[in-house]
Write a structure and sequence with these properties.
Subcellular location: Cell outer membrane
Largest sheet: 22 strands, antiparallel, barrel
Number of strands: 52
InterPro entries: Beta-barrel_TonB, Beta-barrel_TonB_sf, CarboxyPept-like_regulatory, Plug_dom, Plug_dom_sf, TonB-dep_rcpt-like
Pfam family, one: Plug
Domain TonB-dependent receptor plug: 117-224
Number of helices: 13
Helix content: 10-25%
Structural class: mainly beta
Radius of gyration: 31 Å
Organism: Chryseosolibacter indicus
């Protein structure tokens, strides 16, 4: 904040009050109808305005002729007008386009450029796309863009990704709203659009698939989504939207349920100097149910799994993963609780936003923005979590000119009533177990006693129960079980949700992040070449009160920062555009690193461009990867930075978990053959292997890309690309056992004392965060075709190929690729079938693949191929500037899974009514 105030002061010293000139005019279409909301901008400055309901505009400038103004509107050809004399009253006619084929984008190079000449692949949704989408929200509509993957954990929790290694909580993808990172500091990733912008305030969304760390830093490992909201100077008046839908049609576990989505926006500008906007939106509904009861018990042969398996471990039933092998009986699991009885499916998202903008001069705008979000969502990670009444607050201050910006923002989260739903089922199962006399036992004895009851009943030692009957034995072991919905069940659920830490299911995170960044474009000053420089500093301030981190006595602070320089030059009569950038980043816990990028764009002729790029990227471990210190009883989960294990010796003195089984097996075999314990120990100890686990470091990627983008006859756009990526240092976990004695003797042999520690229980298991040395590659291609047909019909189609080569890597050392090999999308629509009617249809298909995730202990779960159709038809009420829409997500109500362990996604049918920019 101090930096921004200082810069503001310095700029103000040079600000003089000159004679002003008023520019007025009218903007109309080819039929002489006024265009409302057209943008008028003084070229090279930030001064401008927007047309009113009569298409009129006026603004003042201190510029002396000649100067240029730019007149633009989504759906029309942009015009640049040279003002030679003043005063002047302009009459501007904009020519309508069937489709904007050559839009301007910012995110590809962090400066404005034509999308056709972008040095890398980039996708964009503009205001018309957002208004005409058949999806229930603009965020859902991102899935129609080529190369984009979306995973739905619930109504209010969706994740996007590009180019493989997808996850339900994607910390490899950067999501920005008006330049500010939209992630929650504790989770380490963005919760979809739960805390983002409402559709009503969205102006555009730009998406970069693939590595973008060279310009955006460590989080942009797999790509960037840059969302831009509406400027209150340009979009004024009152707008409102009401949307009502229904889901859970023809489902077994829920009746049809209403979805409500309301939004309101008001913006006002005064004398083209000061403007403000206010936004509020509220979404609520009954979440999709996770009811996949497939038996995934890994110790049961696949052909023996199912509902009749005594060791059944159903995917979305929790507590049944506690299983044991009982001598003479076999493997048995406890009776669990279905997720639908444990989690909160009544989800919502509340978003409040306010912004103040002040034009200090023609080339300087100061803005302050406050965002508040609160909501409930269900998320699939290593467990299923209920993110319940979670809040995220953000303050942002920005100083911006035509060729620079400085911004600072802070983000604070509070987990409130969030909890681990899977852990909740396991914990409730420990509260009601009775001994053989009918008395409830302590929670730490519950599992042992339940299996004792099962064994006694199965063996026929309980009167009235026939021996050898698994159903009868389970019924006896379950006596006293709290039934879902009962008063006892509800009381235990509320108690455990309110209890944070290992003794409860509650989650506590009151973490924050602070970020300041700036950028300056020297291109106009140097003229010989394009030059941009920028940098940022970020601080994570993590606090979980000892529930996840060792932070009982104070929060954990992590500092990181980076800076970049980017050069560009046009050669060969501006047919060849070369670009190069270099970024340096440093996190307090890791060595500094450079990430270069180089690119070339060659204009073959007119609007036909070939692009070539080389990019590098990296991803810092999340704060949790670095500092988690969770003593979970038999195992401690330990983050991988040296500070987190200060005073501990587990990294230097432990055995690999893979060597424990052979050691214990050989020891038992020697004992059975008559060896003394000491002799058996000496015979088996050399099977133990000292672990060699390194401290954690960032993941790395190198990527090559070649592409073509061409515009034919102003109505056919073709965009094709091929990429090849190489990955190293993937983050992973390794389990080790630490004895009390040194692992090795001075001569390098396994220490018998350490081996004895394992037999005596004088040892402890640790799950350590580290990196894999393995290298893997991925490659793929995309093809997109957009064709503007006569009479405003528009057809778009795209296809994506993504493949993964594990090479010689250990599969256990590589995260799940979790991406279909083939994916296609087709959209067809017309925003003006008549003057008042339009429609849009989107069809998507993807093939089957195996999903690997921690929820199923990295074992594969099949995601079957599916296709989905979204559709909408709309009617415009022109006199009141409104639009009525009827639409459907997943029109044919196909129940599909997008991640293994997450719910199946069915149809949402909706109607909406939008009033736009009234009371201007």
């Amino acid at each position: 904040m101090k930096i921004i105030i200082l810069i503001l002061f310095l700029f103000s010293l040079n600000h003089t009050y000159c004679q002003t000139t008023k520019i007025t005019g009218t903007v109309t279409d080819e039929l002489n109808n006024p265009i409302v909301g057209a943008n008028i901008l003084l070229k090279g400055k930030v001064t401008g305005t927007a047309t009113d309901v009569k298409g009129k505009f006026e603004f003042n400038t201190t510029q002396t002729p000649p100067f240029t103004i730019i007149v633009s509107m989504v759906g029309f050809q942009k015009q640049e007008l040279v003002i030679a004399t003043v005063p002047v009253a302009l009459s501007v006619t904009l020519v309508e386009l069937n489709e904007v084929m050559d839009e301007v984008v910012v995110s590809a190079s962090r400066v404005e450029e034509n999308i056709l000449q972008s040095p890398i692949s980039i996708e964009k949704m503009d205001l018309r796309d957002i208004m005409q989408t058949p999806s229930i929200s603009f965020y859902d509509a991102l899935e129609n863009l080529k190369g984009v993957e979306m995973v739905t954990s619930g109504l209010t929790f969706k994740q996007i990704n590009t180019r493989g290694f997808n996850h339900t909580g994607n910390s490899r993808f950067l999501q920005l709203v008006d330049g500010a990172d939209n992630q929650t500091p504790g989770l380490g990733f963005s919760v979809g659009n739960m805390f983002g912008s409402s559709d009503l305030d969205m102006e555009s969304a730009e998406l970069i698939p693939g590595a973008a760390s060279a310009l955006y830093g460590p989080i942009a490992f797999n790509g960037v989504l840059m969302m831009k909201t509406k400027d209150p100077f340009q979009y004024q008046g009152l707008s409102a939207q009401t949307k009502v839908g229904v889901n859970h049609i023809n489902e077994d576990y829920a009746d049809p349920h209403i979805i409500n989505d309301y939004a309101i926006r008001y913006a006002k500008a005064f004398n083209n100097k000061f403007a403000f906007k206010l936004n509020a939106s509220y979404f609520s509904g009954l979440d999709f149910y996770a009811v996949n009861y497939t038996d995934v018990d890994s110790s049961t042969p696949p052909e023996q799994r199912g509902d009749n398996n005594p060791a059944r471990n159903a995917l979305n039933i929790y507590g049944d993963d506690e299983a044991r092998t009982i001598e003479g009986i076999g493997r048995v699991s406890r009776t669990g609780y279905e997720e639908r009885h444990l989690t909160d499916y009544d989800v919502y998202s509340l978003k409040l936003n306010g912004a103040l903008h002040y034009r200090i001069s023609e080339n300087m705008i100061m803005s302050y923005q406050y965002n508040f979000g609160q909501g409930t969502a269900n998320y699939t990670g290593s467990n299923r979590f209920s993110i319940n009444n979670f809040t995220l607050q953000q303050h942002k201050l920005e100083l911006k000119g035509a060729n620079y910006f400085v911004r600072a923002y802070s983000t604070a989260e509070d987990s409130h009533d969030s909890y681990n739903a899977k852990g909740l089922g396991q914990l409730i199962n420990k509260t009601w177990v009775r001994d053989l006399n009918g008395n409830i036992v302590p929670e730490n004895q519950a599992d042992d006693m339940w299996f004792t009851r099962y064994e006694e009943a199965f063996l026929g030692n309980i009167a009235g129960i026939n021996p050898g009957n698994h159903d009868a034995a389970r019924t006896f072991a379950d006596q006293g079980r709290f039934l879902p919905g009962s008063a006892e069940f509800i009381a235990q659920k509320e108690r455990l949700v309110a209890t944070q830490g290992l003794s409860g299911a509650g989650i506590l995170s009151q973490s924050k992040l602070y970020h300041v960044e700036g950028q300056y474009d020297f291109s106009k000053k140097i003229k010989l070449l394009d030059l941009q420089v920028g940098g940022n500093f970020r601080r994570y301030d993590m606090f979980t009160n000892g529930t996840l981190f060792d932070d009982k006595n104070g929060s954990i602070v992590i500092d990181e920062g980076g800076a970049f320089v980017q050069l560009g030059k046009k050669l060969l009569n501006e047919k060849l555009k070369l670009g190069a950038s270099l970024r340096y980043d440093k996190n307090q816990n890791f060595d500094g690193r450079f990430t270069p990028r180089a690119s070339a764009v060659y204009t073959v002729s007119g609007n036909h461009h070939i692009r070539l790029s080389y990019q590098t990227g990296f991803r810092n471990p999340t704060p949790g990867d670095q500092y988690i210190k969770l003593n979970a009883g038999p195992i401690t989960i330990l983050g991988g930075v040296p500070d987190n294990s200060k005073g501990m010796t587990v990294y230097q003195n432990s055995f690999t978990s893979a060597s424990l089984g052979p050691f214990f097996g050989a020891f038992q075999q020697a004992m059975q053959q008559g060896a003394t314990p000491q002799d058996a120990l000496m015979q088996a100890k050399d099977l133990l292997v000292k672990s060699n686990v390194d401290y954690i470091k960032p993941e790395r990627i190198k990527a090559f890309e070649i592409g073509y983008k061409g515009l034919f006859n102003s109505n056919l756009l073709i965009d094709a690309n091929y990429y090849f990526s190489s990955y190293t240092d993937f983050l992973l976990n390794q389990v080790v056992m630490e004895p009390q004695n040194p692992v090795l003797t001075p001569d390098g042999a396994v220490n018998a004392g350490a081996a004895m520690d394992l037999l005596n229980g004088d040892s402890h298991l640790y799950q350590l965060y580290t990196n894999a040395a393995d290298q893997v590659t991925a490659q793929g291609a995309t093809l997109g075709v957009t064709y503007a047909l006569p009479k405003n019909f528009l057809l778009s189609a795209n296809a994506t190929l993504a493949t993964f080569d594990i090479r010689d890597a250990n599969p256990n050392n590589v995260p799940g690729f979790n991406t279909p090999k083939y994916k296609t999308a087709l959209t067809f629509g017309n925003s003006k079938v008549t003057k008042t009617m339009g429609f849009n249809i989107a069809w998507r298909w993807q093939d089957a693949y195996d999903w690997y995730g921690t929820f199923n202990q990295m074992r594969p779960g099949r995601i079957e191929a599916f296709s989905i159709v979204d559709a909408q038809i709309n009617y415009k009420l022109l006199p009141v500037k409104s639009m009525f829409k009827v639409g459907a997500n997943n029109l044919f109500n196909k129940q599909v899974y997008q991640a293994y362990g997450s719910p199946s996604i069915g149809a949402i049918y909706y109607i909406s009514l939008t009033f736009d920019q009234l009371l201007r």
